[in-house]
């Protein structure tokens, strides 16, 4: 436990009952120095009742006296044996009830467009469980027929920065493993800003690769050589033959 409980109310009490500097109070309560100054001026935490840290076993009077005599000294939170082992439990993030029905669609989107993400990463990203993710991967979920992939950022289940951080981590893991990624996979594993800044290059399908210079009409030199003259085109008879007929 690094900070006192009810930090702002504790800061109000320290401002009103001690001669500690704003910086000392701010460091102890986890606030900004200007915020503590605002408390002293009455602009911040107006109407907040002070919370006595001595009576609530968070500070001792001797600690306060020592800090008042030395402005460079930092207040130390009193050790509380009852608080040992009470760290916040780590697990899937909390999802509001109004958005829980959208989680399967978000999972389907992540499984479809980011198959490189592990079940644990998806679980932390949208606040779900691994069995649910596995059932959607294997398409055995009871509602799979009516589900559609929807971006979890658009649903408000996570932030774009959080999604980018996860895919960047997946990209680093793939690069460390020496796996070769296709162009489509590489675009998926970069952040949104990087993907939008990429140049789109037209590509020739592999089925006709190497035939981009092929033409059905042949070369231009051949066309020039085979250009017919006017006589051969109209197939006109010779004048000598007509003269012979007239003499007869």
Q: What's the number of structural domains?
A: 2
How many E-type strands? 0
SSE run: HHHHHHHHHHHHHH
Cα distance spanning the termini: 131 Å
Q: Quaternary status of these chains? A: single chain
Low-confidence stretches: none
Total helices: the number is 14
Shape descriptor: elongated
**Sheet of most strands:** none
Q: Tell me the helix content.
A: 40-55%
Rg from Cα: 39 Å
Give the mean pLDDT.
76
Strand content: under 5%
Topology:
Layout: H1 7-17, H2 22-29, H3 33-41, H4 61-69, H5 103-113, H6 119-126, H7 130-137, H8 152-155, H9 160-177, H10 183-188, H11 192-197, H12 220-225, H13 230-234, H14 239-247
Helix pairs in contact: 1-2, 2-3, 5-7
Keywords:
TrcR, mainly alpha, DUF1013 domain-containing protein, 14 helices, 248 residues, 48% helix
Textual characterization of the structure:
The chain folds into two domains: 7-83, no CATH class; 91-197, no CATH class. The chain has 14 helices and no strands. The chain has helices spanning 7-17, 22-29, 33-41, 61-69, 103-113, 119-126, 130-137, 152-155, 160-177, 183-188, 192-197, 220-225, 230-234, 239-247. The model has no long low-confidence stretch (mean pLDDT 76).
Structure summarized in a few sentences:
18% of the residues are buried. Helix content is 48%, strand content 0%.
